[in-house]
Design brief:
The structure is a homodimer of 236-residue chains.
Chain A lengths: L21 E12 L2 E8 L9 E2 L2 E3 L6 H13 L5 E8 L10 E9 L2 H9 L4 E6 L4 E3 L12 H15 L16 H12 L5 H10 L3 E7 L9 E5 L4
Parallel strand pairs in A: 1-6
Antiparallel strand pairs in A: 1-2, 1-4, 2-3, 2-7, 5-6, 7-8, 9-10
The first copy, chain A, binds a DNA duplex (27 and 27 nucleotides) through helix 5.
Chain lengths: 236, 236
DNA sequence: GAAATAGTGTCTGTTAGACATTATGGG
DNA sequence: CCCATAATGTCTAACAGACACTATTTC
């Protein structure tokens, strides 16, 4: 008979007296690179798993919330903030890191193409395309990259979550600059879903949603008829 | 220039040397009670927040995964296992517990009506209906129950997640016994969504999905025409 | 004017809501 | 025979895919 909650033994619980797991945040940095959904990864140069590729991450400080930790790591790892950040899932298998018990809260960060490029140019991370249903991360030389720890599973979940939310959420716009063409928006959807979409139906669906605002401006630097630029209006 | 991952300083990291947050799992036990979506809560009898109502939960042991911890807590708190369990979200605001830094991974557990009743009869938990958009937990005497810590937000997220997944996932069946009528299935959807549904359209949608298997059996103890009993078929 | 892509009109098949109707058990 | 609910048929509106067509810019 235990009507009371868990918390009666919290009162006299001394955290330093017990083993406690370490808590980290890992970032799944996703963006479009050459029309393909890609992730930014870092190369491990220390064992274990030296030479494998990993999600950037780090420990959660005792005085920062999970969201704040994710934002801090984003700044540290790619050198800027302002990307869309949302919590993805928490991974806590006992042996996911061979050195110690680490529970990680994975965050999804969505980057615009210019942000992807800036991070790569700064030498902090490398781009890997997410290919196929088995979800191999492909490096610049087209070879599959070995992924460290359970990061393959984390990437797969991130991709699935993005696919599931892309057409009823505003996530697609996080990949795009403030002004964008309908073609660019469709490219985002197609890259995320991995399948071509019908152009008129896509246009209708997006416009009927009532969120896109025509700017009257047109794209330049096109060697053909330039498309109109839209912005995302407020949610009502 | 930091090409390497976060993990180089993991190598010589001693977890006992730093403050580390405590990690708990909290359970959002949901089920239908008198045709309403309801949660099972425990009453806190120790400060802080004595007299408030809370989600049952407990610490994650150093040698158990998050999923295993959730299953163990389910067994301890309601006295059985076998309920549908899935991870919901992780909450890590710095001040969410006034005593110490606690990061909690919330799990969603879906119970059948007989499981709800068994848990209540065993005196371990109390039922609270989730009412309205502001999501007040309502006790037996129809008064709103004060919720401890950030558990109101956790309940709200659980309800929203359930609403979002109810019609493309198998979650609804977790609330039902192995054999059920279409009416009972519709009751589940209506209680979760909080809105009435069209009967013929609902039947068609469910049957066209190809997952429901007619048993040829009919419900008994009905004072009118008895409905056919169905089971959930395999996913292909 | 040729090339290329933007943008539109229209047909069709699928699906959901609304509503009426028939079917079948208990009393 | 009455009642209550199960189960079904049908009409209609909304919507997505397919495809053809027109429009507009650069070169």
């Amino acid at each position: 008979m235990n009507i009371s909650g868990d918390s009666e033994f919290l009162s006299d619980y001394d955290p330093t007296a017990y083993d406690c797991p370490s808590v980290t945040v890992d970032l799944v940095l996703l963006g479009l690179h050459r029309q393909r959904l890609s992730a930014l990864l870092v190369r491990r140069d220390q064992p274990p798993q030296a030479g494998h590729w990993a999600l950037p991450g780090g420990f959660v400080a005792i005085d920062e919330s999970l969201d704040v930790a994710a934002a801090r790591l984003l700044r540290d790892k790619v050198g800027f903030d302002g990307a869309h950040l949302e919590q993805l899932y928490s991974f806590g298998a006992v042996d996911r890191d061979p050195r110690m018990r680490v529970i990680t809260i994975a965050y999804l960060a969505l980057l615009r193409e210019d942000q992807m490029n800036a991070a790569v140019r700064a030498g902090r991370v490398a781009v890997a395309a997410l290919e196929g249903e088995r979800l191999a991360a492909i490096g610049e030389d087209q070879a599959a990259l070995p992924l460290a720890f359970d990061h393959q599973a984390i990437l797969a979940l991130a991709r699935d979550r993005l696919r599931g939310k892309i057409d009823y959420s505003d996530l697609a716009f996080a990949f795009l600059p403030p002004r964008f063409t309908l073609r660019a928006l469709q490219d985002v959807h197609e890259a995320v879903l991995g399948t071509p979409l019908n152009k008129p139906a896509f246009r209708r669906r997006m416009l009927d949603r009532g969120r896109l605002v025509a700017t009257g401006m047109r794209e330049d630097e096109a060697s053909h008829r330039p498309a109109e630029l839209f912005t995302l209006g407020s949610a009502r």
